[in-house]
Amino acid sequence: MTRIILVRHGQTEWNMQFKYQGHSEVDLTPTGVRQAERVAARLANEPICAVYSSDLGRALKTAEHIALSHHLSVTPVKGLREYHFGEWEGLTFQQISERWPEISVDFFKNPDSVRVPGGETFGEVKARAEASVRKLVDLHPDQTVVLVSHGGTIRTILCAALGLHLNRVWALRQDNTAVNIIEYYQETAIVTLVNDIHHLSGE
């Protein structure tokens, strides 16, 4: 059994402004850095053998805090990037709904079938993310591995593990530095934890 600990990155400026980030590079806020430190402390006693991350800076910086606690380096994995929001990146939902009223509604009602202008579909995100996860599972049999990624991408990985249709992707909450755990067996994936942020109590 391979145990995968999925962690969302810490808070960014665009998180605070409710802007869509996607593939854009947005730095962690001071709060986001503290969140990364707290999740690192929370995972310090886990038997982690490797730390992987999306190649976007906000995820890499979060992963570096976790890796430091285990004297490990972080390996970037492009397949763990966030959903590519195309022309929506840097905009708020209000701005998006004014410019793309029909697509913005459908994006939440039927996310599986929607491609945002210039961006991806959730099916494409799931395919690349799940391929990356499966490769790492094969690379680390009987070990515990951390993957730091993004809210949308983690949701697709959880949908795959739970056998959920991607139209249920928004039913899975993902807060900043949320911890999720999936155990991968030969033919089965068992989700043992979702969106746990108890390390942020008092934040």
UniProtKB/TrEMBL annotation:
GO cellular component terms attached to this protein's record: cytoplasm
Which Gene3D superfamilies does the record associate with it? Phosphoglycerate mutase-like
Q: Name one Pfam family in it.
A: His_Phos_1
**Residues at which substrate binds:** 8-15, 58
Q: Which GO terms describe its molecular function?
A: phosphatase activity
PROSITE patterns per the UniProt record, alphabetical: PG_MUTASE
SMART domains linked to this entry: PGAM
Catalytic site:
9, 82
Protein name, as recorded: Alpha-ribazole phosphatase
| Source species | Anaerosporomusa subterranea
